[in-house]
Amino acid sequence: MSGPVSPQGSGSMPSPETGPVVTPRTRTLSWAGLITVLLLAVLVFLPAPFVVNSPGPTFDTLGESGGKPVLQISGAKTYPTTGELRLVTVLEAGGPGYAVTLDQAVEGWFRKDTVILPRDLVFPPGTTQEQEQEESHQQMVSSQEQATVAALTEVGYEVPATLTIIGAVPKSGADGVVEKGDVVTTFDGKSVATYTGLLKALDDVTPGDDVTLGVKRDGASKDLTITTSRGSDGNAQLGVYIDPKFDFPVDVTINLANVGGPSAGLMFSLGIVDKLTPDDLAKGKTVAGTGTIDVDGTVGAIGGIRQKMVGARRDGATWFLAPKTNCDEVVGYVPDGMHVVAVGTLHEAREDLLSIQHGTASGLPTCQGP
């Protein structure tokens, strides 16, 4: 009996003893495939010049972190709270000391909750890991201090401050008039005891008008005439840089490690207000939010709001407080099941939470499309 025959005829089927025939073309294709696999493997592990921003963890300002209350208050009566007031974060990879690989960057391109940015657009060339961490830490420290001032002022406390001038805006009315180390004492003849008091006094000034700033210089009192200018918000500004040293009437300690930047200010303030009043702002609900805070309670814009909304919804938030100045980034990106309220000040945010609590939230401002 004859052996098996291929469709091409006798002798064309290789025998087990000889194996497949390796042609030059087969050998070339094999090497090309091997080289391609090796190149892809190398590219996967090569650092990519991108920053990948994705939803980070959230933290309840009314809860605990690391076994300690996020907000510890002493020197004043505090009240029980229910619900959660969550600050939100962005998980940032690709900064100094935290390089991302090409496969991580490519994966991020295909995720709706992730943003890929050129590294040089986020961090100036040459920025070190230590510099970035120090800047982020200082922003957080400043944010916590301003949040405390804003919250205490909101609930009725006066927060005295020593207002030391550390410089003047070049070519402003204060340039060449004030000196570094001057301590502000009066404004147009009226005593200035708080930073917010100075800001409120400026609210009554028309940009371009002259004002008299009383200062202590080398122990002697001086009255300085300064021509105000128009700030970016349209209000009058002195053109001086001030380093305020606050004398807090209530001790507030914020315990939150490994979180940096200024964007938690609003939620810190709301947490402090909630603990110092019987309002119970969250009232059993999970509310998240973001925004910088100034000592006068102004809420400012932040970065990464789309990722922050996703992280908030993931962790159970059904309401989200967003800075009005971020509304253009919010429209069209609100997660299902979440209601966004646009806020401009701490007081507005507090009143909005009370409206949500009382079931009258239907008329609250939100972010609208064009």
Topology (elements, then pairings):
Elements: H1 24-45, E1 47-48, E2 50-60, E3 64-65, E4 68-69, E5 71-74, E6 84-93, E7 100-101, H2 102-109, E8 115-118, H3 119-122, H4 129-154, E9 161-168, E10 183-187, E11 190-191, H5 195-203, E12 210-217, E13 220-227, E14 229-230, E15 236-237, E16 240-246, E17 251-254, H6 265-276, E18 286-289, E19 292-293, E20 299-300, H7 305-314, E21 319-323, H8 327-330, E22 339-343, H9 346-357
Parallel strand pairs: 6-18, 18-21, 21-22
Antiparallel strand pairs: 1-7, 2-6, 2-8, 3-4, 5-17, 9-10, 9-16, 10-11, 10-12, 12-13, 14-15, 19-20
Helix pairs in contact: 4-6
- The CATH topology of the largest domain turns out to be Ribosomal Protein S5, domain 2
Radius of gyration, Cα only, in angstroms? 30 Å
Distance between the termini: 85 Å
The CATH architecture designation of the largest domain is: 2-Layer Sandwich
Instruction: Quickly count the domains.
Output: 2
Low-confidence stretches: 1-17
Please give the share of residues in helix: 25-40%
Q: What's the β-strand tally? A: 22
Structural class: alpha+beta
Biggest sheet: strand arrangement = 8-2-6-18-21-22
CATH class of the largest domain: Alpha Beta
Tell me the β content: 25-35%
Please give the count of helices: 9
- Global shape: globular
The mean pLDDT is 87
Report the biggest beta sheet as strand number plus sense, adding barrel if it closes: 6 strands, mixed
